[in-house]
From TrEMBL:
Organism annotation: Exiguobacterium mexicanum
Domain HTH cro/C1-type residue range list: 21-42
Gene3D superfamilies to which the protein is assigned, alphabetical: Winged helix-like DNA-binding domain superfamily/Winged helix DNA-binding domain
SUPFAM superfamilies in the cross-refs: Winged helix' DNA-binding domain (SSF46785)
Cited InterPro entries: Cro/C1-type_HTH (IPR001387), TR_Rrf2-type_CS (IPR030489), Tscrpt_reg_Rrf2 (IPR000944), WH-like_DNA-bd_sf (IPR036388), WH_DNA-bd_sf (IPR036390)
Protein name (record): Rrf2 family transcriptional regulator
Length: 140
Protein backbone atom coordinates (compact mmCIF):
# COMPACT_ATOMS: atom_id res chain seq x y z
CA UNK A 1 0.00 0.00 0.00
CA UNK A 2 1.27 3.44 -0.89
CA UNK A 3 -0.42 6.78 -0.49
CA UNK A 4 -0.58 9.12 -3.46
CA UNK A 5 1.66 12.12 -3.98
CA UNK A 6 -1.48 14.22 -3.48
CA UNK A 7 -1.66 13.02 0.12
CA UNK A 8 2.00 13.90 0.61
CA UNK A 9 1.48 17.42 -0.78
CA UNK A 10 -1.71 17.86 1.24
CA UNK A 11 0.06 17.01 4.50
CA UNK A 12 2.94 19.37 3.69
CA UNK A 13 0.56 22.16 2.64
CA UNK A 14 -1.36 21.88 5.90
CA UNK A 15 1.85 21.87 7.94
CA UNK A 16 2.97 25.01 6.11
CA UNK A 17 -0.36 26.73 6.72
CA UNK A 18 -0.23 25.72 10.38
CA UNK A 19 3.25 27.27 10.73
CA UNK A 20 1.96 30.57 9.33
CA UNK A 21 -1.14 30.75 11.50
CA UNK A 22 -2.50 33.38 12.25
CA UNK A 23 -0.79 35.47 9.59
CA UNK A 24 -3.82 35.22 7.30
CA UNK A 25 -4.57 33.28 4.14
CA UNK A 26 -1.78 32.02 1.90
CA UNK A 27 -2.13 32.36 -1.85
CA UNK A 28 -1.95 29.32 -4.08
CA UNK A 29 1.12 30.69 -5.89
CA UNK A 30 3.10 31.06 -2.66
CA UNK A 31 2.02 27.63 -1.46
CA UNK A 32 2.88 26.02 -4.82
CA UNK A 33 6.31 27.69 -4.80
CA UNK A 34 7.06 26.46 -1.28
CA UNK A 35 5.99 22.90 -2.12
CA UNK A 36 7.63 22.96 -5.57
CA UNK A 37 4.47 21.78 -7.32
CA UNK A 38 2.30 23.29 -10.07
CA UNK A 39 -0.48 25.65 -9.06
CA UNK A 40 -3.09 23.68 -11.02
CA UNK A 41 -2.17 20.39 -9.31
CA UNK A 42 -2.11 22.03 -5.88
CA UNK A 43 -5.46 23.73 -6.57
CA UNK A 44 -7.06 20.30 -7.02
CA UNK A 45 -5.54 19.13 -3.75
CA UNK A 46 -6.71 22.23 -1.89
CA UNK A 47 -10.21 21.81 -3.34
CA UNK A 48 -10.37 18.30 -1.83
CA UNK A 49 -9.18 19.64 1.52
CA UNK A 50 -11.76 22.45 1.38
CA UNK A 51 -14.59 20.04 0.52
CA UNK A 52 -13.69 17.96 3.58
CA UNK A 53 -13.61 21.03 5.82
CA UNK A 54 -9.86 21.05 6.48
CA UNK A 55 -9.13 24.43 4.86
CA UNK A 56 -11.09 27.54 4.03
CA UNK A 57 -10.73 29.34 0.72
CA UNK A 58 -10.66 33.10 1.26
CA UNK A 59 -11.65 35.07 -1.86
CA UNK A 60 -10.15 38.36 -2.94
CA UNK A 61 -6.81 39.93 -3.78
CA UNK A 62 -5.39 39.05 -0.36
CA UNK A 63 -7.18 35.72 -0.30
CA UNK A 64 -5.91 32.20 -0.41
CA UNK A 65 -6.13 29.25 1.94
CA UNK A 66 -6.13 28.96 5.70
CA UNK A 67 -6.81 26.13 8.11
CA UNK A 68 -10.49 25.62 8.80
CA UNK A 69 -9.78 24.53 12.36
CA UNK A 70 -6.77 24.41 14.67
CA UNK A 71 -3.91 22.21 13.47
CA UNK A 72 -4.29 20.17 16.66
CA UNK A 73 -7.73 19.10 15.42
CA UNK A 74 -6.63 18.01 11.94
CA UNK A 75 -5.44 14.43 12.04
CA UNK A 76 -3.36 12.59 9.48
CA UNK A 77 -6.34 10.30 9.01
CA UNK A 78 -8.55 13.30 8.16
CA UNK A 79 -6.11 14.27 5.41
CA UNK A 80 -5.68 10.73 4.08
CA UNK A 81 -9.44 10.21 3.89
CA UNK A 82 -9.88 13.56 2.12
CA UNK A 83 -7.27 12.66 -0.48
CA UNK A 84 -7.55 8.89 -0.86
CA UNK A 85 -11.24 8.44 -0.20
CA UNK A 86 -13.04 6.29 2.29
CA UNK A 87 -12.45 2.69 1.37
CA UNK A 88 -11.54 -0.48 3.14
CA UNK A 89 -7.89 -1.47 2.67
CA UNK A 90 -8.46 -5.22 2.49
CA UNK A 91 -11.17 -7.18 0.74
CA UNK A 92 -11.30 -10.94 0.92
CA UNK A 93 -11.47 -11.86 -2.76
CA UNK A 94 -10.84 -15.56 -2.42
CA UNK A 95 -14.32 -16.38 -1.12
CA UNK A 96 -14.95 -19.27 -3.54
CA UNK A 97 -11.86 -21.31 -2.69
CA UNK A 98 -11.83 -24.45 -0.55
CA UNK A 99 -9.28 -22.80 1.74
CA UNK A 100 -11.60 -19.87 2.39
CA UNK A 101 -14.51 -22.22 3.07
CA UNK A 102 -12.44 -24.13 5.65
CA UNK A 103 -11.52 -20.93 7.50
CA UNK A 104 -15.12 -19.75 7.62
CA UNK A 105 -16.51 -23.20 8.59
CA UNK A 106 -14.31 -23.26 11.68
CA UNK A 107 -15.57 -19.85 12.84
CA UNK A 108 -18.82 -19.16 10.95
CA UNK A 109 -20.13 -16.47 13.31
CA UNK A 110 -17.07 -14.27 12.87
CA UNK A 111 -16.37 -14.91 9.20
CA UNK A 112 -13.01 -15.35 7.52
CA UNK A 113 -10.13 -15.37 10.01
CA UNK A 114 -7.76 -13.76 7.52
CA UNK A 115 -10.15 -10.86 7.02
CA UNK A 116 -10.45 -10.49 10.81
CA UNK A 117 -6.68 -10.12 11.13
CA UNK A 118 -6.52 -7.62 8.28
CA UNK A 119 -9.46 -5.62 9.66
CA UNK A 120 -7.80 -5.47 13.09
CA UNK A 121 -4.55 -4.24 11.52
CA UNK A 122 -6.44 -1.61 9.54
CA UNK A 123 -8.22 -0.48 12.69
CA UNK A 124 -4.93 -0.07 14.58
CA UNK A 125 -3.40 1.76 11.61
CA UNK A 126 -6.34 4.17 11.41
CA UNK A 127 -6.35 4.66 15.19
CA UNK A 128 -2.67 5.62 15.08
CA UNK A 129 -3.20 8.08 12.21
CA UNK A 130 -6.23 9.61 13.92
CA UNK A 131 -4.05 10.38 16.95
CA UNK A 132 -1.35 12.15 14.90
CA UNK A 133 -2.22 15.76 14.19
CA UNK A 134 -0.69 18.37 11.92
CA UNK A 135 0.19 20.27 15.10
CA UNK A 136 2.07 17.27 16.48
CA UNK A 137 4.50 17.26 13.56
CA UNK A 138 5.16 21.00 13.53
CA UNK A 139 5.67 21.05 17.31
CA UNK A 140 8.42 18.42 17.32
Amino acid sequence: MQFSKSTDYALHALAYLANLNPSGPTGIKQLADVLNVSESYLSKIMTNLRKDGLVNAVPGAKGGYELARPASRISFLDVILAMEGRQQLFECSNTTSKQHSMLVQETPASGCRIKRVMDAAESQFFDYLSNQSIQSVISQ
